[in-house]
Structure formats: C-alpha cells, structure tokens
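Quick one: structure tokens for this chain, please?
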Amino acid sequence: MSRLHKKFKEEIVPELRARHPDRSPMALPVMKKIVISMGLADALKDKNALQEHSDELKMLSGQKPIVTRSKKAISNFKLREDQPIGLMVTLRGKRMYDFLDRFCHIVSPRIHDFRGFSRKGDGRGNYSFGLSDQQVFPEINLDKVKRAQGMNITVVTTANNDEDSVELLTLLGFPFKEISQK
C-alpha cells in the first residue's frame, strides 16, 4: 500500500466522516483515476516524436501509454483519419496514489514561479490542469529531451461538485492557491 493510500484510509476518511456526519460512508468522495494526456502536433511532422514522448510518458507514469488517433480528416490541419495525434495513460489504484504523491511533493515545487493551482474544477467533481513542460518530472532525463511538450492531467473523483473534490484533493495534499482573507 502506498504512503498516500495509507494516509487516505487512516486519516482522510475519518476526517471526511467528521466533516460530513450526515452522509453515508459510501457517499464520501474518493479518487477513481488519473488521466495523463499529451497532444502531439509534432507527431505529424516528425515520426520519432511519438516514440520519444511515449518513452517519457512511460517513465513518469509507470505504464505504457496508448496512442490516440484522429477520428476524422480535417484538411485545414493537414490531418487524415486514423492518424496518431496524441498519447494517453489512465492510472488507477496504487499507481494513481503514487503518481499523485510524487506530483504533490516533488514535481509541484519544481514548477517555475508556482503559486498553486486554481480551485476551479469542471463542476462535476473532476479536476483538470495542464503543465507546459514535461521537464519538471525528475524521471525525465533532460539530456535526451529534444523538445518541450506539455500535458493535461485530470483527476477523476466520485464527488458530485467542485467543493467536495477540492476538499478531498486538499486533504490529500494537492497544492492549491491559498484563499486570500480580506
């Protein structure tokens, strides 16, 4: 059991029960999965870009990414149907907790001019954010990186609204912006 999962079971679940005594234990929010995706415009021009970024995503997530492909052809973007346009990894269970633990305690402090993430979710209990550079992850060998590539990370929870998901992620140690007191 990972460190963050153990903390969730032993400390966070009792804290959530104390904060929401009117809810059933099954109605408390939990994390379901973390989805990491990269859109690769470079893959259309450079065939090696797909493999290089696939290796990087494999190193930072711990599992092999799947290639996302275009659904239809768009001539203005020089895009054909079924052409590779991105990579995606879905993390669940132990890998999900390990990734979030590493992200909160190792990666976030390495982001340049980082003040915290916004507390705004998607309104349905999920939280998405983007990184402009993959080089903040310590798993990435900076000597092998040829181009900076951003990524989108989505934390999917069982919460029904943003307040519950932000409360859960805050208890898990996610680095949100401080609320200013006026």
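The first helix runs from residue 3 to 19.
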